[in-house]
């Protein structure tokens, strides 16, 4: 059975695409459209993977990542920043905040799931 994935993403089109791609690969999807709901669902549902947008309306993904890393989230949970932030230092900042991986938008629908799975497999080694 595939793991559950919490997607924290405020853009409906991005949420739809990520959910669709992951559901087609038999992942269980949990959706949050803002940071507050994302943190609550992460703590309640304890997903194996969290896909986290950095630009959210109520708090940025770095803050969410920091809170999740220190607030009752299983250490086995893998957090992957999925963001259009592609400026110098943004990837490093995501890792410093506690992310385990980083995927730039726009995502490639043909390779996204394998990119995510590669991050998961590397983290579990």
TrEMBL record:
SMART domains named among the record's database cross-references: REC (SM00448)
4-aspartylphosphate, modified sites: 53
Alphabetic keyword roster: Phosphoprotein
Keyword Phosphoprotein: yes
Domain Response regulatory: 4-120
Gene3D superfamilies in the cross-refs: 3.40.50.2300
PANTHER family to which the protein is assigned, alphabetical: CHEY SUBFAMILY, STRESS RESPONSE REGULATOR PROTEIN 1
Protein name: Response regulator
Organism of provenance: Geojedonia litorea
Upper taxonomic lineage: Bacteria, Pseudomonadati, Bacteroidota, Flavobacteriia, Flavobacteriales
